[in-house]
Fold this sequence. Notes:
- The chain is of the alpha/beta class and 223 residues long.
- 43% of the residues lie in helices and 10% in strands.
Amino acid sequence: xxxxxxxxxxxxLPHAESFRRDDFLASPSNEAALALVDSWPVWPDRIAAIxxxxxxxxxxxxxxxxxxxxxxxxxAASLVKAEVPRALATGALLLxxxxxxxxxxxxxxxxxxxxxxxxxxxxxxxxxxxxLEGYALADLASRLRAVPVVQLSPPDDALIAAVLVKLFADxxxxxDEETVAFLTMRIERSLAAARAVAARLDAASLSxxxxxxxxxxxxxLRE
Length: 223
């Protein structure tokens, strides 16, 4: 369609994100967390945590570990004390998105104790440190302070650029180095921002009948 013609309707079709090990992009910002996942089951402690901001790669790392360990996956907000033995039935559990006021403290305390008793593995993901104030149970807070934590740092430019290339490739979009460099310098330093801009540019390219270029990227970002 000519660039000056009517815009096409951009269908918001889902693009499945791969959480395979081969699709994980390693960088200095995530090397400690990746080493933790890759070193399983040789961990210094059977309970560990990966902490970092939204979009930093926690979900990908956690999914890699869960597949490797045969772990059950439970969102922290849905943890119920009566279900803790079942959650640990495979000997490994991924507890996602832990935060104060977002979890039943009695259930979490029971989980940590039972995991120790049964020598089960538990990987916790959280946006903020586990030792923050906010837990009413003093014994629970003490247990959380003892959990070894690996911190995800904000992604560097090289990682953002590599993620953009992968996201566009997943959408079968060819993009040149100039456009990737332009975007890398102008979006927020987070994987979430990279995903969002890839989706916006995919939709814009389709609706306007134009291939993705630096000019189109600049136009969309101005909007």
